[in-house]
Amino acid sequence: MMSAKFLITGVTGNVGKEVIDRLIEKGLPVKAAVRDLSKAESLGLKNTEIVLFDYDKPETFEPALVDVDRLFIIPPPLNPKQHELIIPLIDVAIQSGVKHIVNISTMSVAHIENLPLGIAEQYIENSGIAYTFLRPNWFMQNCNGYMLEDIKERGAINLPAGDAKTSLIDIRDIVDVSVVALTTKNHLNRKYTLTGGKALDNYEIAKILSDVSGKKIQYYPMTDEGMSLSLKSFGMTDENVEMYMDLYRSIRKGDTASVSPDVRNVLGREPITFEQYSHDYIESWK
Ligand SMILES: NC(=O)c1ccc[n+]([C@@H]2O[C@H](COP(=O)([O-])OP(=O)(O)OC[C@H]3O[C@@H](n4cnc5c(N)ncnc54)[C@H](OP(=O)(O)O)[C@@H]3O)[C@@H](O)[C@H]2O)c1
Q1: Does the domain made of 137-169+195-258+270-286 have the CATH classification 1.10.10.410?
Q2: Which atom of ligand 1 lies at the shortest distance from residue 107's CA?
Q3: Domains 5-136 and 137-169+195-258+270-286 belong to one CATH topology
Q4: What pLDDT sits at residue 97?
């Protein structure tokens, strides 16, 4: 029997890549789960076992979980059937003797009934495997991700968020909490809501980005119809669009405005502010 390992999913994505780098730095035994092995080379992961792992190919789960006792789950994003893909993974994790699952979902599981990620959490909770649920609010890094083209090219934030506030979280805080949850025993069977320390509306977000970038950036509240058409133009299915519209309705109801103490309680420091984030990513706004 080889020594027990961590299996980290989503390593070609924002959160998973930072998490696995941090575990490797600590000299911990890790396996990197990738669905496209050719992508793994560019990640520069040293002393790491690379394994094939694809939510759409459940036959990859069992080999990936050999000798694994801690599993970090990044759900497949943009998928309204996330639970149907994650549940078979949990069944294999039970059989394989996984001892602890750290699972990324979303703050919205507490507000929207039967959200796929909420159903997946429920299944994990009933599995008998110890869990740590990390429920982040919307990411600050969406501004330098899918929103960047609008911000840079048109000076625009286009969202159907009305004048609601959101306590955005910096991905770097999610990574720090994930590493603590994976590597210590103090967070078993806990559910943490990960938010920034302050809720901002999109007018305030546009103002901060304008001040930092020196460019004029404005918030243009969208209608649901406008957003829905825009998402469909990117090729999203009707089901997927509906999932997103539920999330935006929840923002407008004020569900994502609350500030949680969980990042501070786990890390012993304040969460990163949006001002700090926008300075740190200054190259993005140029
Ligand atoms: N953005 C937000 O505001 C927000 C808020 C709350 C929660 N979340 C959740 O946070 C999680 C992490 O976000 P992130 O920014 O790190 O995501 P990301 O950068 O989009 O990365 C997603 C990762 O999942 C992998 N993946 C996708 N489909 C897969 C499949 N069928 N089988 C195996 N792997 C697959 C991707 O691999 P490939 O490189 O091969 O595609 C990639 O490594 C996501 O699950 C997201 O839903 C996001």
Answers
A1: no
A2: 6
A3: no
A4: 97
Interval between CA 34 and ligand 1 midpoint (Å): 12
Handedness of CA 282, 256, 136, 262 (dihedral sign): positive
Q: If DSSP codes are grouped into helix, strand and coil, which group holds residue 197?
A: coil
Among residues 166, 173, 15, 36, the alpha carbon closest in space to that of 104 is found at 15
Class of domain 5-136: alpha beta
Asked whether residue 25 carries a pLDDT value surpassing 60, the answer given is yes
Could you tell me the residue ranges of all domains in the chain? 5-136, 137-169+195-258+270-286
Query: What pTM was estimated for this model as a whole?
Result: 0.97
Instruction: For a ligand 1 pocket test, name from 17, 72, 74, 109 the mutation site with the most ligand atoms within 8 angstroms of its C-beta.
Output: 74
pLDDT in tens, 179-203: 999 999 999 999 999 999 999 999 9
| Nearest CA residue ID for atom 23, ligand 1 | 10
Q: Are 43 and 17 in contact (CB under 8 A)?
A: yes
Three-state secondary-structure class, residue 205:
helix
**pLDDT reading at 2 higher than 90:** no
Which of 8, 11, 12, 244 most suits a substitution to test ligand 1, by most atoms within 8 Å of the C-beta? Answer: 12
Q: What is the pLDDT of residues 34-50, one digit of tens each?
A: 999 999 888 989 889 99
Span 126-148, mean pLDDT? 97
CA distance 180 to 192: 12
* Per-residue pLDDT at 4: 78
Pocket of ligand 1 from Cβ distances under 6 Å: 10-16, 35-36, 39, 53-56, 74-77, 104, 106, 136, 138-139, 142
